[in-house]
Amino acid sequence: MSTKIKLTKKDFINKKSVMTFVFFGLTMIFLFLLIYGVSGWTMYGAIDGTFASGATGIAISILSYVTNQGLFDVFYVGFENLISVSKKNGKKQYDMVSYRESKITQRKSNRFIFLSYLIIGITFLVVSLILFYVGYPN
Question: Residue 52: CB partners within 8 Å, gap ≥ 6?
Answer without folding.
Answer: 31, 32, 35
